[in-house]
Every structure is written in structure tokens, then in C-alpha cells.
Amino acid sequence: MSITYMLITLTRRKLKYLLLLVIAIALAIYCIAESDGLSRHSSPYHRWNARMGKSIQKKEAQLESPIAKREDFGGEISQNSLDYYEQETVMRKAYKCEQQYPIEAITDFNTFEMYKNGVSSSLYPTLKKSRTKMNKQPLQVFLLPMTHVDPGWLETFDSYTKDTNQILDNMLIFLKKHPKMRFMWCEMVFFERWWSHLNDAEKTDVRQFVTSGQLELASGSWVMTDEANPYFPVTIDNIVEGQQFIFRELGAKAKVIWSNDPFGYGPSVPYLFTKTGVKLAVINRIHHGMKNYLQELRAVPFKWRQYFDARGESDVYTHVLPYAHYDILNSCGPVASVCCEFDFKRLTHHMCPLKKPTAITKENVVERAALFEDQLMKLSHLYESNVLLVMWGDDFRYNMLEEWRQQYDNLSPIFDQINSWNRTRIRFGTFVDYFTALQQFNIDNAINAATLTGDFFPYQCALGDIWTGYYTTRPFYKKQGRHLHALIRATDLATTNMIEKLSDDERKWINDKLTFARRNLSLFQHHDAITGTSKKHVMSNYAQLLFQSVKAVASCLTKIVSVENMMDFEINEVPLQYNQIPSKKLILIEPNTIISVAVYNSVERWRFETISLAVSTYMVRVIRGGKTIQAQIEPFIDQRSGNLTSHFNLIFHADLPPLSTSIFTIIEDEKHHGTVIAEVAYVNDHHEEAVIRSEHLPKVFNVKLVKPDEFFIETDAVRTTHSPENGLINTIRTKSVGEMQFAQTMDHYVNSGGGPYIMHQSGPAVAFSLSGLSRFVIKGPLQQSAYIHSTSLMQRTTVRNVPGNIGEQLHIVMRVDIRRFAQTELITRFNMGLDGNSTVFYTDSNGLQLLRREYNEGVPVNANYYPMPTSLMLQDRSHRVSIVSDVEHGATLYTKTTPEIMLDRILLHDDGKGLGPGDDSILNDVLPVEIGFTIIFERVDESRTLPEHFAYNTLSAHLALQSLLYKPIVLTSKGNPPLIPSSSLKSFPCDLQLVTCRPIAPDLNQRLLILHRPGIDCSGNGGGRCQSIDFTEALRRYLKSIGALKVQKTTLNGIEKIGAEEVVDAVKLHIEPMDFATFIITFI
To answer: How far is CA 162 from CA 145, 151, 190, 193, 402, in A?
Structure first.
């Protein structure tokens, strides 16, 4: 026993001495590092100064100012990359991407193959057999009176409201007196405006119309959205805003999607509707050749299936209108001039191609009814079933009570006469009536509807025009919408975090402003708004609404951050006018003054970002958590003009906790401890040298000349080379991929035809002249940038010296200004060093999924353009290159390994698609726009194969897109903030996206939480700094952190309850890739 005791005692002593020895060694290492004024985390900064031949002072001097006495301002310089993040990584397992692609759905029709083998070659697949026409009698016909109302196009939304109010007033009068009459309404933005002026009795009548089925509210979304350009979280807001309104006010639920006017359709918007319970749709504008082909085979209606849903759980049973348009002339049958004779508004208004309508009398009803039925019978031959839908209306119809009487009084006797013959049963009906009868017919006759996968881009109308220009048209306005979305989302989430600290009055004030902004952003998703296809004065009105919304939301976020930190902050980067891009406010750095910088991270995970501020002097020090952090001073380039200024750009890296505000302080420091002055080098060319000098570059910068072949940027992980002629990137070398060709060119299509809607190139693109070219590089330890500065284009290409996969990404920001051009479409191309034989090309569908594209040689370039709302991707056997953007574009392939992205368009004539003649219709009102790209280079696992027609982003590309769209929001204030406890929020799993947590009702104590699990391609470079976190654990701790008490799972719109309400500790989260999980959370 004594021997055992002695051994234990001896072991304890040895452990004690060993522990003391370890501590002593650690202190020695620390002192060595401290003697250089740097911690081990400061390696990029240290290496940079060693290379520059400079030394850092051994000890930072105390500042003679009030802040010098505060212990916050110690002398240690931190790289700021690990100090904070390590707090969360302890005891966490590294993330392992384990998603597998699902089996791709196999369907009767695939639009990719249809376009490739049919449209582009005029040879549709010959193996398809026409479905047999069911000749059972009688024919069932549902005629649906409707009006199509654009919330902005030739006139502004407010101007059109006068017409829509009149239409709805007429509806209220007429339906009350005519119970057999039916009417369909979409565009809730107009309906809400009208509803707000009704008295209680009138509202009761409207509710009764909805309950009885006389009035059908289709889609329920705030507006009928474009489907090429929107980012899916904004589409969700558009759907939720409208469907919540009609449920709350009328107790109604939308059952059918009505989308007659958007210029093409994608699979993602219908998929989002299915998550609200809507699985029926009526669409119209698909490629005319495809429409004819499907009709010849009697394959309409079809079940529209997602590529990733082989079981068809999210199928949308989709009807396509039969002919070229949605008006009455294209509705009742194949002969438009005959159908026109039954558009009874034309008794007193408008004309017909041949014969005008005649009023129906006892004398002519038989003849008229027979002619009408003949058209219906011919129409029915397009379909397998004997159930027909006939739309009865046009743009802004039924705005006169006279038309209601004309249509009803003349159609009713025709219906009665036709019904008396027993060959056809016809009545006024709704979408729901039609689909109910159709589905019953299919059951009775053992019909299985055709299935279809893919999208309907590009759209070609019956005249042969290709509608692909609007993917890019007016990018300034598109960028405005993206900026507002990011601000709304950030403020929603920040409000949620602070909900327990805000008074009821403050919450109501914030909710009102957010509702104002959210509805304006939803309005902008309209298919003539985000598309840029309205008259100039209407586009200007949209811009003013978006600008007012930005100011409203900025005031909310400012309020929240100010309350949180108990001092007044203001957002640092906002637009000064409705027609200007956002610009940074100059921060005046003065002696004895502290500038507090609050950086809000609206992303649901830790992230490492680069913060940029405009400051008045280079003599600054940046402090966080009592430590001086590395910073970099660069020349400041004005965002509005694109010119160099006498101010300075302050750069520092920030590791930002999720959904939280991080505080940094900036002080004046004559020796600018921890802050390095970047080098500036410009190409040794006489002209370019003169440009640089004329811009009054501050003399503090070490400026030198370089030869064109010495124009490059590099970090530890990346090195680029650039064209000696113009400075555009030529090659890139990264640690993961090695060296790869990535040769950028700037080109343009000249003498282009077309207009806001359509593209019509007159020949191949030619090189874009970079007149007034100036090339310079800015190099520092934190980042390096290569600048191309010309009259119409300024481009900054940046590599950042940051850890992990993000350090291998390339960041390009362009300032595009083509106002001095005419008939020009500006493009950029990237010739990639990929294997052309194995390379496949994809663009995204609303940021939700990637769809395979292919350049079809049988059609012109404009017919090979596809929407690129957020990203494109090329992949060969071993490499993948993803390009993500913060602005919507059109994109195509120039060669098998060269994507082409359109940047802006300026055209001087109308394209004949409805805007009409005159200067107000001409696409020459373009504005300077700032466009951001992040390029992700990855080596992929060759053993993993892609599905044939779709793909997902890799985790690196997904996170890069989130970082680009949801940039950190910077706010500033004078003074030192009080010490606020750091956020307790933890990261979400990297493959779980927090879409929103927004208000949904007047109840201030409830919010709608929407989560999405994106599909992730696991063949890329891996998860970087992501940790493996259980979904249920992540959800519960988030709910606890915001003070939620109860949780109710619902459909995506927050209407249909799923299961019972639960307390936070009981909630569980299981979510499959590509699915959503939605909850109503209650705080009190």
C-alpha cells in the first residue's frame, strides 16, 4: 500500500513540474511574439512587413487621450481570424458533406431535350405518340371571365389603381345581382389597395363571393412574378405577403397558380407554391414551337415534375393556354376572327379583324350558338380529355359596368342554347371547377396525365421573336432590388433577436416600415418591373419606391443596433438618391475621438469577411476586444464616379458571429499601429501615368511603375496573371486546383436590334474598347487588387489573404456605365482551361437549383441565352468553376469552355412588344451599376457523377453566394460603446439556410420562421470551417436565444398547421435536401 502511495505522489509531482515547464515555454513563446508586437495569428501582416523591409515597433505607445486609460486598448495585434471563432469550434466535429444526388426523374417530356432536338433543329423527337382523344360526349366547358392587370407597365402602379378600383367596384355590384356569373382576380397588390377602402358590409359581400366560388382569387401572391430574375427568398415573401393577406382578411386560400403573362417559366416558382399547398397551375407564354408540339401530342395539361423529385410528390398539374395570347380572340377556338365576334365589349368598343359582334337575340341565337360550339369542338381536339377551360378577358377589361352586362347578357343565351343540344355542357366557371372536372374525367377514364421536367426558357412568341433581353435589361434597378432584399432580411432577423428588448410601440413602428418595404419589393418582382420592361417614367417610379423603402428599412436597422448598443448609429453605405448606387459615407477621424463601428452579420453562421470604410486619414488604428487588429490603407475610389479621391479606404478582416453585431473602434494614431499602407503600382505607360497623377493620389502611398507583364496580384493561396494589353485576368493559380487558364475579355454586340424584351444581334460580338485605360494594382497584407479603369468600365479584381477555401476565391467588382453608347450590349467572357470534351454548363433557377444548358448551333445566339439570376457553373471531369453574382444576368456559352455573361444593354428603338412609340419607351435610360462576382475554383471528385439535367452548388459556392448577397452591414457612431455581452448565438449547420424570420400578422408576438436545406454537391473542396451540428439542436438553441416559447409547424405560407403546437424543447427538425421547414413562433 505504501509503495503504491509513493508512486502516486511521485507521478503527481512530475505532472506538476511538467505543467510548470509547459507554462514557462508558452510564456517564452508569447514574449518572443510580443517583442515583435505581433501574435502568432498575425502571420500575413508580419510576412508583408518583412517583405517590405519595415519593422513594427516593439511596444505601442500609450495615446494621450481619454481612451488611453481604458484597458480595452492593449498593445497586442490580432489577426482577428481565430480569436473569436475558436470560442465556438471547441468540441465540435468537422463538417462532412454527405448529401447524395437523388435519382433524376424520368418523364414523358424533358424540355432540355425538346429544345435541343426540336426547337434548335426543327426536328422534334419522332418516337412520341399522340395521346388518344376521348370522344365521349358531352364536352364540358368552363368559361372564366378575367382581367389582366399590370401593377406598372405603360403607367405606374398608382395610376393603374384607378382602373383596378373601378373593375373591382363593378365586380362587387354585378356578382351580387348575378349569382351565375364568375370572376377571377390575381395581383393582390391591387386587391389590397381596393379592399382597404371598403366598408364592413361590402367586405362581407366579397367574403361571400369567395366562399360561394363566384370570385376566385388565383395564386394569392402579392404580384404575378417574373420567373427568370427573382431570387427565391424574395419570391417566398411575395407569396407569403399575398396569401397571408387573403387568408387573414377573407379566410381564403389560393388553390391555383395563374401566370399568363411572364415571358417564360422556371420549375422553381411552381415548386415554392407547392410548399403552400397549391399544386395546380395555368400558364401561357412557353416557346411557341414547344406549345405546338405538346398540343399535337395532346400532352397538355401535364404534370410538371422537379428533376430531383422522381416520386412526383411536388408535381404541379399544369394547363397551358392553347394559342398565342390570353385574350378572347385566342381563347374560344382556332379562328381568332370568329372568337372576336363573341367578345361582346366590341359591340360598342374596339373593332374585330373581320366581322364585329352582334347582340344575341331569339332570332340569331341558334346560328350564333352553333358557330361558337363549332369553335369549342375544334379546340377540344387539342386535348385528350373532353374538359375545356376558356379564358374570357384581356388587359384591364371589365373596367366598365357596361361590359359586364354585354358579356353576361349575350353569353348566357348562347350557353342555354348550346346546353339544350346535349353535345356540350357550358357555363361560367373557375379554375377550381375546371380542374375538379378534369381530374374526375381522368379517374373515370383511367387517364394518366403526361409528365414533364425542365423549364420554359427561352420564350419564343408566335411571331418568332426570342424574349431573352430582359434577363439583363436595366441592371441598375435589378441591383436596387437585391440591395433592398438584403436590408429587409437583415432587419427582420435583427428585430427577432431584439424582440424582447423592444417596446410594443417600437415593434409596431418597425413592422409597419418593414411591411411598406416588403410590399414595394414584392411589387418590383412583377413581370414588367424586375424585368426592366416598363416605360421609363414607370421604371423611375419603381426606383423611387425602392429608394424610399431602403431609407425606411435603414432607419429600422439603425434603431435596433442603437438600442442594442445604447448609442446612436447610422448605416454607413446607402444610396443618396433614387438613381444612384449606394456609396460609403466618409468617416472623419479626429484627435481624441473614438469612432465605433458596428458590423451586423445577417448570415446564420460564423463567417470571415473583409470590411471596407472610407476614412479621412491613413493615421488610424482599428481595435476589437481590446486588441489592435491588422488593417490596411488603400486609395479610396468613389463608388458613384469611379474616380480616385484624396480620401482613404480602410480595410480589415472580421470574424463575425452569426446573426449578431460586432463592435470595432477606430482611433487616430499618427504611427498607425497595426495598419499598413498598401503599395500602389501602375503600368509603365505614358497615358496611364498621366491619368494616375491627375487623380491626386495621396502622397503617403508608395507608388511605383511596373511593366505590363509585371501586372499581377497574389497571396499565399492565389496568384493571377493578366493581359499585357488591357490588364484583364489571364490565368489563376490556387492551392487546391493549381494553375488554370481563366482569360477574361470584354466584348459587345454592336448595332443590336431588339429592345427591352428581346435580343436581336446583327453579328458576332467584337472587342469592347477600354478607352482612357488606366491599370494599377494595390497590394497589402490583407488583400491585393488589380484595377482596370476606363471611361465606361472600372473593374477591381481582388484576392484576399484569408484562411480556408475562401482564400482561394476571386472577387470581381465592375462599375459599368455605357450611357455614351448606342445599340450596344456589353458582355464579358471567361475562357477557362477545362476539358471541352467533358465540360457541362449550368445556370441557376432562382438560386434554388442549377439547370443544365447547352449551346444549340441550329439557332442564333439570342436563342441560346438563359437566365442567370445568381450563378452559373462549368464542370469537366476533375474541375468545377462556379461564378456567383449579386445582379441578375443573361448568360450563354461562347465556346464549350467559355461562358458569356451579359452586363448591360442600351438600345434606341422599341421592339414592338407593347411599350409603343416615343422616347418614353426607349431603352436609353441606363444608369451606372456596380456588379459583383465571386469565382470559386474547385477540384472535384472524379468518381462522383452529375445527374444528366440538373445539379447543385458545392458548399463553397453556396456559402460564397450567401456572402455576396448578404454582405455585412456596417454602421458607425462617434464615441465608445458600453461593454455589451457578446452574442450567445451559435452557427447553424452550413447546409441549413435561414431564409427569414418575419412578421406575419398584426400580432406583435408572432413571427414566421422559414428554413431551407439547399441541395449541396459534395464533390467540391469540402466544408471549410463548417462544423457538424444536429438540425434539431441548431433550431432549439436559436429559438431559445431569441426568447421563443412555443412553435407551430406550418406550410410555407404560415397558414396550414402541421401537427400540434410545441414548446421549444420538444420541437424536432428533420428536413431533406431541397425542402423547407416553416414555423410560427410565439414569444408570449
So the answer is: 20, 11, 10, 10, 17
